Amino acid sequence: MSAVTLLLISAIAFIVAYFTYGKYLDRKLGVDPNRPTPAVEMADGKDYVSTNRPVLLGHHFATIAGGGPIVGPISAAVFGWIPAVLWIVLGSIFFGGVHDYASLQASIRHKAQSIGAVIKGYIGKRGQTLFLSFSTATIILIVGVFIVLVADTFANVPEAATASVLFIFVAMLFGFFVNQMRVNFVLASVIGVIVMFVCVWAGMIFPIKMSATFWVFFLIAYSYIASVLPVWLLLQPRDYLNSYLLYGMMLGGFIGVLFANPTLQLAGFTGFYNEKLGPLFPILFITIACGAISGFHSLVASGTTAKQLDNERSGRFIAYGGMLIEGFLAVIVVCSVAYLTTEQFTQRLTELGGPIPAFSAGLGYFMSHFGIPETVGTTFVALAASAFLMTTLDSATRLGRYGVQELAEGRSKAFANPHVATGVVVVGAAALALSGTWSDLWPLFGSANQMLGALALLAVSVWLVKRGTKSWFTIIPMVFMFIVTLSALLVFMRTNFLGGNIFLTVCGFILFVLCIFLVIEAYRSFTKPKDTDTTVKV
Fold it and tell me: Which residues of 446-471 are buried (b: 16+ CB within 10 A; e: fewer)?
């Protein structure tokens, strides 16, 4: 099969799903465009900020994408491109899209409170505490992993470092002029995008060459600042402007595939077991998270996105549409290496040092077929990939702050303080970032992330059942993800125990037990009717 055929089939599937299954979800979730959203009712100019759809899609997509849709699909390609693409397409439509959209709607129906608050209202306070503890720990793990990934990228690709630092200042100027000076949004967007690409050029001319350790400390400071500043000043405009860089990368890759028209030479299916990763089930479904379903998305949808949604009608465009765009990106990522033979694919991963450089080289090669020098295309893609990582990093820190504050509510005034709460996340992430490489942390991150997705689906399923909605569209994905996650944790614990890594074995065991306890709490909620917690704003 040619890569062009694969991309076109995937694109058609996503478009049809958006206008059919997406509308079905609208009906099942009871979307009402006349019902005011929390961003309108509770506007405070800092966290609750009503935002138009293009800007919010930019923030949401740039945040959920991260490095996952690049690292995951390429890593899982060792099983063959066919199982990887099938999981990406079907997962995005029936699992990830449902997970993201339902999480967003559940949050805005509860005054933009977190999934943890939904759990408190329908499962109980103990369930909320367990979920928040788990989700906060997962976010600290995510921030730690992405600090290492970004620092390594900046150290190895200094052009990306310069551009990313300049993006910060451009984003703050954009946010100030649009939100405070009321400059025309379209005009500001055009100028902002142009200046952003000038920053890319400046990065190629004046690269900032510093060590990975320097960038770790820089990113720790940046994450703290981004978490406590008003959302309109840095987080929102940075994600919005960066989204154009990401769209440009996707468009360049798509056009490049059309011009190059490569044949997929990578093995379609290599077998049910890989010596490096393990069995296809459940490892494939853990390795490919972003691009199919990712628990982190529920924290984004119910954390920052829910506080900015201007109208319930925009929810499908932002959450379900954003997941389908990410799925299409993941298919492009598969194509970026699937035109190689299996031997060439293995060699490229080894020589270039990982999935992100391999992806950049593949898209750079495709872009060379319509006139862009291969080295320029490869560098541009590397810059865009670093933007993915950076936008997830700052948003994740803010979400971690929300989690700590919610845990501290009614328990500790000190930890409810935004600066202290942010400090908890940043210090924990810094300890992880300085203690190991991203590859050491990634397997644990993958397991925790997918379990978080199962727990979010559990929360929205209980909410829907309690309000009298037949929710098989969330229950079926929830059951599947619990089976996948628990199976993966058993494989993870066995592998690390036999390898002598007791620390990771214990971490996996704790996650496994925590998951079982939450399932028990949810089962009790299903079987024993109870009134909604009056402390939860419904």
Answer: bbbbbbbbbbbbbbbbbbbbbeeeeb
Q: Which amino acid is at 537?
A: K
**Quick check: 144 and 441 in contact, CB under 8 A?**
yes
Assess contact for 56 and 308: CB atoms under 8 A.
Answer: yes
Could you read off the pLDDT of 125-160 as tens digits, one per residue?
Answer: 877 787 888 788 888 877 887 788 788 778 877 887
pTM above 0.70, yes or no: yes
Q: Which among 117, 100, 195 has a CA at the least distance from the CA of 403?
A: 117
Tell me how far apart the terminal alpha carbons of the chain are, to the nearest angstrom.
51
Confidence of residue 505 (pLDDT cuts 50, 70, 90): confident
Report the 10 Å Cβ neighbour count for 44.
10
Instruction: Name 279's bridge partners.
Output: 273
Contact 61, 326 (CB under 8 A): yes
Three-state secondary structure of 120-150: HHHCCHHHHHHHHHHHHHHHHHHHHHHHHHH
Per-residue confidence band for 536, with pLDDT thresholds at 50, 70 and 90: very low
Helices and strands: H and E segment counts in the chain: 25, 2
**At 157, which amino acid appears?**
V
The SS3 call for residue 507 is: helix
Contact 72, 287 (CB under 8 A): yes
Produce one character per residue of 173-186: b if its CB has 16 or more CB atoms within 10 Å, e if not.
bbbebbbeeeeebe
pLDDT at residue 258 is higher than 80: yes
Query: Average model confidence (pLDDT) for the chain?
Result: 86
Amino acid letter for position 458:
L
Give the CA count within 13 Å in the CB-facing half-sphere of 433.
28
Instruction: Give the CA distances from residue 111 to residues 31, 280, 301, in Å, rounded to whole numbers and listed in that order.
Output: 15, 41, 13
DSSP per-residue letters across 429-465: HHHHHTTS-HHHHHHHHHHHHHHHHHHHHHHHHHHHH
Provide CB contacts within 8 A for 72, sequence distance 6+. 287, 288, 289, 290, 291, 292, 330, 446
Handedness of CA 425, 355, 240, 23 (dihedral sign): negative
Predicted confidence band of residue 537 (pLDDT cuts 50, 70, 90)? very low
- Three-state secondary structure readout of 347-410: HHHHHHCCHHHHHHHHHHHHHHHHCCCHHHHHHHHHHHHHHHHHHHHHHHHHHHHHHHHHHHCC
For residues 501 and 493, give the distance between their C-alpha atoms in angstroms, rounded to a whole number.
9
What tokens appear for 196 in the block?
A: 């952003």
**Is there a contact between 355 and 75 (Cβ–Cβ < 8 Å)?**
yes
The one-character DSSP state at 230 is -
Work out the pLDDT band at 439, boundaries 50, 70, 90.
low
263: which strand partners? 2
Q: Which residues, 6+ apart, have CB-to-CB distance to 80 below 8 Å?
A: 266, 267, 268, 269, 270
The predicted pLDDT at position 480 comes to: 94
User: What count of Cα atoms within 13 Å lies in the side-chain half-sphere of residue 62?
Assistant: 31
